[in-house]
Design brief:
Blueprint (H helix, E strand, L loop, with lengths): L4 H14 L13 E6 L11 H19 L3 E3 L9 H10 L3 H18 L15 H16 L3 E11 L4 E3 L4 E2 L2 E2 L6 E11 L5 H7 L7 H11 L1 E11 L6 E6 L10 E4 L4 H10 L1 H11 L7 E9 L6 E7 L2 H4 L4 E4 L5 H10 L7 E2 L6 E2 L10 H14 L3 E7 L4 E2 L12 E4 L4 E3 L29 H4 E3 L5 E4 L7 H4 L2 H4 L12 H7 L4 E3 L8 H14 L12 E2 L4 E7 L5 E2 L4 E4 L2 E4 L7 E6 L10 H8 L1 H10 L7 E2 L5 H14 L19 H20 L2 H15 L3 H16 L4 H10 L21 E5 L2 E6 L6 H11 L1 H4 L4 E7 L3 E6 L4
Parallel strand pairs: 1-2, 1-22, 10-12, 22-23, 24-29, 30-33
Antiparallel strand pairs: 3-4, 3-7, 5-6, 7-17, 8-9, 8-11, 8-16, 10-13, 11-12, 14-15, 18-19, 18-21, 20-21, 24-25, 24-28, 26-27, 30-31, 32-33
């Protein structure tokens, strides 16, 4: 039987929608399972196959969990505020809401095309006033906790995007979105005290089932460091003290200069005193074309231990590196300082004898001859006792810049009165809606376009006193900080979510999305959630129990000899090289992530219509492990189409309909049962590791055997086979299930193997037996991953350097002894 790719898709997607098959109620008696995708920003480009990987993966999990008897919450919505819609509005005059609505509809169409089992009754849109009313409500909770303040500081300004960007959104002086040049600019901004939660954010990481790489990124971004603040008195500047933090006080005798950033308050004071000359010199220093990295300020400080005069320099690398705005130059311990001191001809004293880690101190008075750790403790005590320094904990993370000088974002629920004092909105005023404006461009000075909407800006309080609305808007991150909670209770008009709904669903059990969000969305959401926990709005202090990062799907892109990007469909392969079609012009090929600008995007729509939705779903999982990057290659999709056709043909009775299972014979085929048991174990294992490619391979391998014993397969195994395949290929399996006279495959019980050939596999850590793997598959990749998952707590913090594996016998993890 040749599969009609559209017939099953159209029929079953219509039936699922008409019958609300995936809609779930709160407070069901079943155990709960909350599986969530990082919801997308609906751009005009639509979805490509790279996006589909994670969405199909979570859909397979959601369908399996329903069959396991769980009440599954699997929602979808739109992170709808953002710069692209506003940039488009500035160019075209089309309101961002109109563009966003069209983009959301297209994204939803594509997601539904893939047969994803979302509960669309819970759909949310962060730009909908019914949603951002509650974003404003929660912002006021932060404000009332003293976590919001206003300050003027040098912020990253992107002229191309015409907006302020947070430090996290700027990489090496260029915008994360669009890769545009950014400059530092003094502006008054609303800032959120995320640093007040630094220790809670760090401590919370220890109990999360997250990839260690993501936790490491968050720890490094927060950057908790213990050390001392040391006071340096400025010569010829009575009463002025420069306080500099160091986490390595044992190196103080090697200090040969104090380096300041151009943003340091002392530098700003000198600029005011010195006029424009110093400012002009600093501007030259900060110019990327400058050949010099440091500028002597003509000032010295006294070394607190030696009494020597130490020069003060402004250097151009501190702010971009996100370090302190004042550091001590210790060339013996800092390659950057060493290079700069050579360039500026600043001599220095060598304080280390030997390797820096195990070094012994020299030329360092009372701590001479001590190793670093001992020297650090001793000199710290000496400095504190002599009142030269105080112990301090510093953080690399800075408070979160929460202002955007643009239109398309949540308005702040704040006013200023006639005296300029801040007045918060009352809860009954919410939502404070965006006004209609004719021009979406910021002012020439970067002022928000909302400032021109004076009829909206100027208002009154209940007593008739004038008030003036704050015209900045919140960043797009605001709405995504708490959306997972709104999904629990999306139609609640009295509060953002009820206590009962959050206690019922609790944490997100599985959160799937890209690792790129480690120090932005994931950190911001954890911060908001901890504030909501502290004010009693939620009863659990972390939002996402388990995090899984799906891999990228990369694709070849092409350039011609002039450097022009060539569309994928204009390139052809000949003898292992790529050429411009119908020419002798050879093309340069490079593999990269899919991007509209690189003309290498592959959209799911075309593939689904050509090969069928289930073929597409199966192939996207078969390409490789869910968590690994994969290179797009269309050739393999035809094999997945053949596999599904073979499944249909096995159950075809010659009339184009699957054969009836009929009455089972009493004849037993232990070999077939054993093979099916082995295949099912591999499928079950794939739901532990989320490497669904191994499940697809197991199905394909087993179908070869099923074709040799068709009668037994049809009578004894086909029903379980179809149920196990269903999460991967739901349209085909739903059709077969119905023709077999069955109903409700979506909630049918997951199959269990009737014969088990596999014996328990012993799990060891450094040769010590710690557990058993009872459902091993006899295949190394699957068994090692399952074993690792089972003893993950015991392995936490350890580095595994070797795994010894013997099929159905042992998995022995050799690793470092201490966590």
């Amino acid at each position: 039987m040749i599969m009609d790719n559209d017939q099953f898709r159209t029929k079953w997607q219509r039936l699922w929608a008409e019958n609300n098959v995936f809609s779930v109620d709160n407070f069901n008696e079943k155990p709960t399972y909350y599986v969530l995708d990082m919801f997308p920003y609906p751009s005009g480009n639509g979805l490509h196959v790279g996006h589909a990987v994670g969405y199909i993966g979570t859909d397979i999990i959601a369908r399996k969990k329903r069959m396991d008897g769980f009440n599954v919450l699997h929602p979808m919505g739109w992170d709808a505020f953002g710069l692209p819609a506003e940039q488009y509005a500035i160019k075209t005059g089309v309101h961002p809401a109109e563009v966003t609505k069209v983009n959301c509809e297209n994204f939803k169409r594509q997601l539904m095309l893939m047969g994803l089992s979302y509960d669309w009754s819970r759909e949310i849109d962060t730009s909908d006033k019914k949603y951002y009313k509650w974003t404003q409500f929660l912002f006021l909770k932060l404000y009332e906790q003293g976590l919001v303040y206003e300050k003027e500081e040098n912020v990253w300004w992107c002229e191309e995007l015409r907006t302020v960007l947070a430090n996290e959104e700027v990489i090496n002086g260029r915008s994360e979105r669009g890769d545009y040049t950014c400059i530092k600019k003094p502006l008054k901004q609303w800032v959120v005290k995320i640093t007040q939660y630094a220790d809670k954010l760090l401590d919370g990481l220890d109990k999360l089932d997250w990839p260690e790489s993501v936790k490491k990124m968050q720890r490094e971004w927060i950057g908790r460091t213990e050390g001392v603040d040391v006071d340096f008195r400025v010569l010829d500047d009575a009463g002025t003290i420069l306080t500099v933090f160091t986490s390595e006080p044992e190196t103080l005798y090697g200090v040969n200069a104090v380096f300041l950033s151009d943003e340091h308050p002392y530098v700003k004071t000198l600029i005011l005193d010195s006029g424009n000359t110093l400012q002009a010199n600093i501007s030259l220093l900060l110019d990327p074309k400058s050949a010099v990295d440091g500028l002597f300020l003509g000032r010295f400080v006294l070394h607190p231990l030696t009494g020597k005069e130490i020069p003060i320099y402004v250097v151009n690398y501190l702010a971009i590196d996100g370090k302190e705005d004042a550091i001590l130059s210790v060339p013996d311990d800092d390659p950057k300082a060493q290079e700069l001191c050579k360039q500026l001809d600043i001599g220095h004293v060598t304080v280390f004898d030997g390797d820096q880690i195990q070094a012994i101190l020299q030329n360092s008075a009372s701590i001479d001859g001590l190793f670093r750790a001992e020297a650090r403790a001793q000199i710290t005590d000496e400095l504190v006792l002599s009142h030269t320094a105080v112990k301090k904990v510093r953080y690399r993370m800075r408070d979160w810049l929460f202002s955007r000088q643009r239109y398309w974002g949540e308005p702040f629920p704040l006013y200023r009165n006639a005296d300029g004092q801040v007045v918060k909105a009352s809860y009954c005023e919410l939502p404070i809606e965006l006004p209609l404006v004719e021009n979406f461009s910021p002012g020439p000075d970067g002022a928000s376009p909302l400032q021109r909407a004076q009829d909206w800006v100027i208002c009154e309080d209940v007593s008739g006193n004038p008030l003036f609305r704050v015209t900045d808007t919140m960043p797009g991150w605001a709405g995504s900080c708490w959306y997972y909670l709104r999904f629990m209770d999306p139609h609640n008009q009295a509060e953002p979510f009820s206590k009962q709904s959050t206690e019922y669903w609790s944490q997100v059990d599985l959160y799937v999305g890209g690792a790129a969000h480690a120090t932005m969305h994931l950190l911001y959401a954890r911060f908001w959630h901890k504030v909501l926990f502290d004010v009693g709005l939620v009863s659990f202090d972390e939002p996402f129990k388990k995090l899984y990062n799906q891999g990228l799907v990369t694709a070849d892109a092409f350039k011609d000899a002039t450097g022009r990007i060539v569309a994928v469909d204009e390139a052809e392969c000949r003898d292992g090289k790529y050429w411009l079609k119908d020419t002798d012009d050879e093309l340069q090929v490079f593999n990269t992530k899919m991007s509209k600008s690189l003309l290498n995007v592959v959209v799911p729509d075309t593939l689904i219509k050509k090969y069928g939705v289930d073929t597409f779903r199966v192939y996207m999982m078969f390409m490789g492990p869910l968590g690994q990057n994969k290179k797009w290659d269309i050739k393999g999709i035809k094999g997945c189409a053949r596999f599904l056709n073979r499944v249909l043909n096995l159950l075809d009775n010659g009339t184009g309909s699957p054969r009836s299972l009929g009455k089972k014979s009493g004849v037993s085929n232990e070999r077939m049962e054993a093979l099916w048991g082995k295949a099912l174990l591999k499928v079950d294992a794939s739901f532990v590791t989320l490497n669904f490619n191994t499940a697809i391979a197991a199905f394909m391998e087993f179908i070869n055997e099923a074709e040799k014993s068709k009668a037994y397969f049809v009578e004894h195994i086909a029903e379980d086979f179809i149920k196990a395949l269903f999460p991967f290929a739901p349209h085909v399996c739903s059709e077969i299930w119905e023709r077999l006279g069955r109903t409700d495959i979506d909630y049918s019980e997951w199959p269990k193997a009737r014969i088990r050939l596999m014996k328990a596999t012993k799990i060891y850590i450094n040769g010590k037996h710690v557990d058993d793997l009872l459902d091993g598959t006899g295949e190394e990749q699957s068994d090692v991953e399952q074993a690792h998952s089972k003893v993950s707590d015991a392995l936490k913090g350890r580095s595994v350097f070797k795994v010894i594996y013997a099929p159905n016998q042992i998995v022995n993890f050799l690793c470092s002894q201490d966590a």
